[in-house]
Amino acid sequence: MIAGVIAKFILPGRDPGGIIVTILIGIVGGLLGGWIATRIMGAAGVTGFNLMSFVWAIVGSVILLLIYRLIFHRTHA
């Protein structure tokens, strides 16, 4: 959840969905960030809560927020 809020802080702007979408972006972004860390970047893996896990969750949330904005603006423009 916190990663989603930080992602919205990094990429300010109006997004539909409010707090529910922010929470979902944070949760799914954390999973995406963990996947990127282990599969693509070759990191040792995301284990538990530590600084690098949190950083990867934020990275995943920012990527997911960008994708969400691209999809939303294309379908409703």
Your description of this structure?
Helix 2 packs across helix 3 (51-75). The protein is globular and about 35 Å long. The chain has one domain (2-75). The model has no long low-confidence stretch (mean pLDDT 80). It has helices at 2-10, 18-40, 51-75. With 77 residues, the chain is mainly α.
Describe the structure in brief.
The protein has 77 residues and is mainly alpha-helical. Helix content is 74%, strand content 0%.
Write the layout of secondary structure elements.
Elements: H1 2-10, H2 18-40, H3 51-75
Helix pairs in contact: 1-2, 1-3, 2-3
Pick out its properties.
transmembrane, mainly alpha, cell membrane, 77 residues, transmembrane helix, Putative membrane protein YeaQ/YmgE (Transglycosylase-associated protein family), globular, membrane, 3 helices
